[in-house]
Amino acid sequence: MMPNPAALFAIVILILPMGYLLLAAPGFLFVKLDVPPVARLMRMMFSAYFQVLAVAAVVGTVVFALTGRWAFVIGIAVLAFALIERRWFLSRMDAQIDAWPADVGRRLRRLHYGGMACNALQLAIVIGSVPYIMGSPA
Q1: 3-state DSSP: the chain helix, strand, coil percent, rounded to 5?
Q2: Where are the chain's structural domains?
Q3: How far apart are alpha carbons 94 and 39 in whole angstroms?
Q4: 78-104 mean pLDDT
Q5: Sign of the four-CA dihedral 16, 18, 23, 27
Q6: Measuring CA to CA, which residue among 115, 109, 123 is closest to residue 30?
Q7: What is the DSSP letter of 34?
């Protein structure tokens, strides 16, 4: 398989939002999530992440479809379902923020850990697929 610059471009587009969340989300480990503005800021960060990831996945899917790498089209199209994940994740986060019980920090922290873990897993899979996408040197 010959290396394709369009495929590398698609991978970079996918890695950027995932890398952003990987670097930005741990900052919320150092603050209390019991403070409403902090909780809302974290919610906005995840909302923006899911939107950008969905757009990046659509772009990646189109690029891989144009380059004829159909196995990767299916894999990256799965990331386009980030909009479904977004709705579920943010609705749970909104429910916690709006109810604001005494243990909201603990519940938001669980969602925060889950979001970071899912992102790290997706990023590892995308980065791990780079050698298969670019082809091995002859």
Answers
A1: 85, 0, 15
A2: 5-130
A3: 9
A4: 78
A5: positive
A6: 109
A7: T
pLDDT(138) > 50: no
Whether the CA torsion 132, 135, 137, 138 is positive or negative: it is positive
Q: Which of 94, 15, 28 is nearest to 59 (CA)?
A: 15
Compute the distance between CA of residue 57 and CA of residue 51 in angstroms, rounded to an integer: 10
What average pLDDT is seen over the chain? 82
Q: Would you tell me how many other CB atoms lie within 10 Å of the CB of residue 33? A: 21
Residue 57 is which amino acid?
A
* Structure token pair of residue 80: 């386009």
Confidence grade of residue 113 (pLDDT, cut at 50, 70, 90): very high
Report the predicted TM-score, pTM, of the whole model to 2 decimal places: 0.80
Can you spell out the DSSP letters for 110-130? HHHHHHHHHHHHHHHHHHHTH
Is the CB of residue 13 less than 8 Å from the CB of residue 56? Answer: yes
Structure tokens that stand for 75 in this block: 């894999």
> Look-up: residue for tokens 């196995």?
71
Whole-number Cα distances in Å, 107 to 61, 95, 103: 34, 10, 7
